[in-house]
Amino acid sequence: MHVLAEADLRLDANAIDYLLLAFYFVLVLGIGYLARRQVSTSLDFFLSGRSLPAWVTGLAFVAANLGAIEVMGMSANGAQYGMPTAHYFWIGAVPAMLFLGIVMMPFYYGSKVRSVPEFMLRRFGKPAHLVNGISFAAAQILIAGANLFLLATVVNLLLGWPIWVSVILAAVIVLVYTALGGLSAAIYNEVLQFFVIVAALLPLTIVGLAEVGGWQGLVDRVSGGPGGAEQLETWPGNQLTGFGDNFLSVLGLVFGLGFVLSFGYWTTNFVEVQRAMASKSMSAARRTPIIGAFPKMLVPFIVIIPGMIAGVTVTELAGENKEALLAGEAAPSGATFNDALLLLMRDLLPNGILGIAIAGLLASFMAGMAANLSSFNTVFTYDIWQAYVVKDRPDSYYLKAGRVVTVCATILAIGTAFIAASYANLMDYLQQLFSFFNAPLFATFILGMFWKRMTPTAGWTGLVSGTLAAVGVFLLAETGVWDLPGQGASFVGAGAAFVVDIVVSVVVTYATQPKPEPQLVGLVYSLTPKETLKHSTSGEDAGWYRRPGLLAGIVLAVTILFNIIF
Fold first, then answer.
1. 33 within some domain
2. What tens digit of pLDDT does each residue of 2-39 get?
3. CATH number of the domain where residue 371 is located
């Protein structure tokens, strides 16, 4: 890998490119400094004082998820599997984002909880709250480490700085603006980063398509290549799931990815929900994920397609190199699919545009990591430190604690960056983490929200056994007892976690005492008065174009259309 880096991957950045990069970093830190003036309470620091407009939180909602892992990982998947990767967006994101806005957001925003674990505390009590708080905090540190590792490899390849220098520098910049301005700084930077990422990837896609002779040219090249025509159809997606049978593959995508992994991620992942909770009204909170779904369904065109172009045009990834990688062997060139986007930039972009593209990549890493840090510091401070360690202190104490926790989280993330280093396709690593942490949480959550009989003991026993089931599947796949290629292991693990969690929860519920009904108002669907779940439709929330239901309908129709066309 490092021989390759020294030979060909060094990007030919010149003074203009460095100037653009420097300007971008000054802008990012400036936003952190300005946001600091708005922070006087812990609620301002952790949830922006619930004051932001829907378009800001909507774009931040997408940008928080458009981290480097998404950009590099999905282009790696594009080079490896082709169009079936679009399932991560059209099946694995959009439906769940709409569900969050229409069904779940009224509960989160209406109950005025400050985090997802806090919702668990009110619904199930302390044991479930603690289990969820610890598992969420662990997941964020692991994912932040993956973002950092990717950032470091890119800086190392582009500019030749050693990996450890790049890791520390990147971590410090994100740390400075998140510790200064809290969530507002992270959110306003995410909006800026969203536009920078699009400005970087759109020209790359257009130039790349021109290079291969348009869409038809790409179709011909991919059909004739090692992946074959299967890479142009999104369904049944056998290469992606690793299942030979079409029916099983579709089932894995719809149930494993589309239902368990995706709903688990988008509806209970505090990284995302936190952005909507920062909105200024219930209507804005409901529109946040729906506004985010508009750009989300278009992202495949600027992320997956460059990956596919790299898979057929870049020497290090095409022909015999691609054949070797698809067979699970090392490519003669030493490149991996994770390098797809960088190699394409190296081949196609002139100076100046290259500076914007590098800034776009760095923006995507920083957006992802800032999202991990800002949600980690909220959950750790409110749900672990304030709840179990140091109770009943004045608010200023928790505001200070939040800043200290942000520093500690950054140091831990530098450590976990080296775990991520051991995976050839980082998307595999991430889906694995989601099957451990998000799938069981979603099962407990959805059951507790719609079934009033479910007991506090069932809440935490279900969570723990679901997580253990996913870890069990992972170990079976790792030790070769169960042969699950592709991302099949994480799909099966997520399904197992979900089913085991539900079964254990039901069994335990019938053996233990439920909470009295009056304590569940606002937390369980059937016991919550309907008017408390409605949002205002006057003033700033008036107008047909601000109706969550209508906006969601438009997104759903376009997404179905994309599935039919491709």
1. no
2. 334 444 556 677 788 888 888 888 888 888 888 887 77
3. 1.20.1730.10
